Amino acid sequence: MQPTPFKLERYFAQHEFTARHLLCSSDPESMSIGELLAFEPGSIDGLRETWLGYTEHPGAPALRRELATLCENVRDDEIIVHTGAQEAIYSFMSSMLAPGDHVIVHMPGYQSHYSVAEAMGVKVSPWKAREQAGWAVDPDELEALVTPATRALVICAPHNPTGYLPSRDVFDAIVAFARRHELWLFSDEVYRGLEHDPADRLPAACDVYERAISLGALSKTHGLAGLRLGWIATKSAEVLRRMSTFKDYLTISNSAPGEYLAAIAVRHTDALIARSIDIVRSNLCLLDDFFTRRADRFEWHRPRAGTIGFVRLKHGHAEQFCAELLERTGVLLLPSTLIDYGDAHFRLGFGRRNMPDVLAILDAHLDATATSTAS
């Protein structure tokens, strides 16, 4: 199997650590190991004493106990810890799908949600978000997409890249559809917890549907991308068995220091979420003003969750706009061509503390280009 190149990741490999200013990062502000250890006095001693032998293949028991607290109905033995969310996505697709199968995928979306399946010979049907409805999806459209070969529905809620969050009624309709057709419901929930209004938080799909697989990661909700830790939670014994067997051909087991630090992070989930949401709310106020002033250039549907939004250019092409912005200012945005969604949008990130400074650079660039165009 040879998946097509992961365009977003190839773009970041080229620019993420050379661009002067990132304005498209999907993860919120991170922290040092020292800052994380400060949440628990004495934890540095535990890190020093962490044994550097092999760890248990589904994840350290102490970590899985902590992760189980993020769900309502899932036990610690119904969780498999992976090296990041990406490994878990790859493992699910590879172990639970087969050539000739069919999946329905929420789009626009994260490339590995569909490219891995396509490389295996699985047919993919897009379930398209509606931009003019604030990037909402319509569950009534799902019946027209299902076929006798359909095995799974892949969703992302809160959504990457639009920041859309379904209402509880829409979420329940999605679950009901999956249950009616006995589909696997692979629910990417890496932004769950970063709802801008906590009252909007949805349950984990694994808590409400026996064939659901909830994907979590510390990269987004906790702002700890460098720990490279993700997990799946599910009530399905079949999924647990098959994904565990497949993981033997991946990392086998995880990093012992990483799992120790991850357990600390999960114990302090509320504090880490509050830290990120404070930054997000402040930045969104600035973006509200920016997009009001720049309504002639951009169309913006304010996200309800997460740290990213999807912006439409009213004139020009996103790829050219992003390339010129990077060349002239060092500011990195992500054009929609890299997520297989035309050439009229770009992804913008608002989870970093330096966003006000970077937004000011973008503002100045727009003024300068407007002046040069006018002259």
From TrEMBL:
Residues 47-350 form the Aminotransferase class I/classII large domain. It comes from the Bacteria. GO terms for molecular function: pyridoxal phosphate binding. Pfam families: Aminotran_1_2. CDD domains: AAT_like. This is Transaminase.
